[in-house]
Write a sequence for this structure.
């Protein structure tokens, strides 16, 4: 069973899928920070068999990787996105889907339980993987931008699963990158990906997710971190003026404070204040709407500043990781901007690194157009079973 959860706009989308992927079709990405609750014998090095920081490893029997053939749970608990449901697990079959409003449920248990009640004759899943917008540091998971929190072990027991794996949602997106088709990504600017080189992934939604892929022989190691919370540095006097207003409000102005759904609202409000006009109380979707931009100069400037600042952070990430394999922009906001994003200052700001301009000019940037990329990545953990 595949579950997709949307948190800030409104909906929890739930999908059932049977997973039976051949090993050759599975992603070769390995995720380092994975919270695992398992009823089987403890994984070596994982202490009590509950939480492990190691990637779920595929079992080998007579040299053949075993895959899950029963319905399995792969959920994306993402704070921004859309509700389209056409995810197909690698080698799998879509069985069932439904959509719910997040605020209709007090806990994730309730949301999953409500969905399972609609499964009809389908069997209860035995294993599952959750891609969630949160730091994965222990068995206790607390979402960064939503009140849901849970224990991986307790949730596994309540669902009567044999195994439940939890991974950061942008780590899951990174794991999906090797599986993306050309039509799943939209190039922005020049450059060409270098084979077997580090790849960086980031994307604004309700928060700012950051991850990457590091080559390790024939496999990839997916990075797990909280790069969205790095300190945001201004490039122009106008950006600095907006950030000054935000510094008076927040104890730390991170990249996420400006490059996210709420961040776009912060930029708009700040620009309105600098212009001496009252903010119109717009949502992020309204601010980035071209029709709004046509009548509200601050909305147009806020979207432009958003794209430029995203370019700054993406360039920083590319330099930090040495991401000559490319930069992938995911999340729920940028794909909706369409051609406006391609015409924005994103790419010029991405390359604007002084002596390293030529280095970054050779690094390609892509927008991930596949809305279920995190689900695709989370499903690879189940394929590895």
């Amino acid at each position: 069973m595949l579950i997709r959860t949307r948190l800030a706009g409104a909906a929890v989308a739930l999908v059932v899928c049977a997973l039976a992927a051949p090993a050759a079709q599975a992603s070769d990405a390995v995720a380092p920070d994975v919270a695992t609750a398992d009823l089987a014998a403890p994984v070596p090095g994982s202490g009590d068999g509950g939480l492990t920081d190691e990637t779920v490893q595929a079992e080998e029997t007579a040299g053949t990787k075993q895959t899950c053939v029963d319905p399995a749970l792969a959920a994306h608990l993402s704070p921004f996105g859309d509700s389209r449901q056409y995810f197909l697990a690698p080698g799998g079959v879509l069985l069932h889907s439904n959509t719910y409003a997040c605020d209709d449920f007090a806990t994730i248990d309730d949301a999953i339980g409500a969905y399972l009640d609609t499964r009809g004759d389908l069997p209860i899943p035995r294993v599952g993987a959750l891609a969630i917008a949160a730091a994965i540091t222990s068995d206790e998971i607390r979402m960064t931008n939503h009140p849901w929190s849970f224990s991986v072990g307790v949730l596994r027991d309540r669902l009567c699963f044999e195994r439940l794996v939890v991974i950061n949602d942008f780590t899951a997106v990174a794991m999906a990158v090797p599986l993306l088709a050309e039509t799943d990504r939209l190039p922005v600017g020049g450059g060409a990906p270098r084979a077997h080189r580090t790849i960086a992934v980031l994307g604004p939604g309700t928060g700012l997710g950051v991850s990457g892929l590091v080559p390790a022989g024939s496999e990839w190691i997916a990075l797990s971190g909280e790069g969205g919370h790095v300190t945001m540095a201004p490039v122009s006097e106008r950006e600095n003026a907006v950030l000054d207003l935000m510094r008076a409000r927040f104890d730390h102005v991170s990249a996420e404070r400006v490059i996210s759904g709420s961040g776009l609202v912060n930029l708009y409000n700040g620009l309105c204040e600098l212009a001496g006009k009252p903010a119109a109380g717009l949502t992020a979707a309204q601010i980035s709407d071209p029709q709004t931009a046509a009548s509200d100069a601050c909305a147009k400037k806020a979207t432009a500043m958003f794209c430029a600042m995203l370019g700054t952070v993406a360039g920083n990430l590319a330099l930090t990781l040495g991401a000559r394999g490319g930069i992938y922009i995911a999340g729920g906001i940028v794909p909706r901007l369409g051609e406006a994003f391609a015409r924005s200052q994103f790419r010029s700001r991405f390359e604007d690194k002084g002596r390293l301009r030529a280095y970054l000019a050779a690094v390609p940037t892509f927008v991930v157009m596949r809305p279920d990329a995190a689900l695709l990545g989370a499903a690879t953990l189940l394929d590895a079973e």
Observations:
- Residues 288 and 303 are 6 Å apart (CA to CA).
- The chain has two domains: 2-178+372-383, 184-369.
- Residues 297-321 form the longest helix (25 residues).
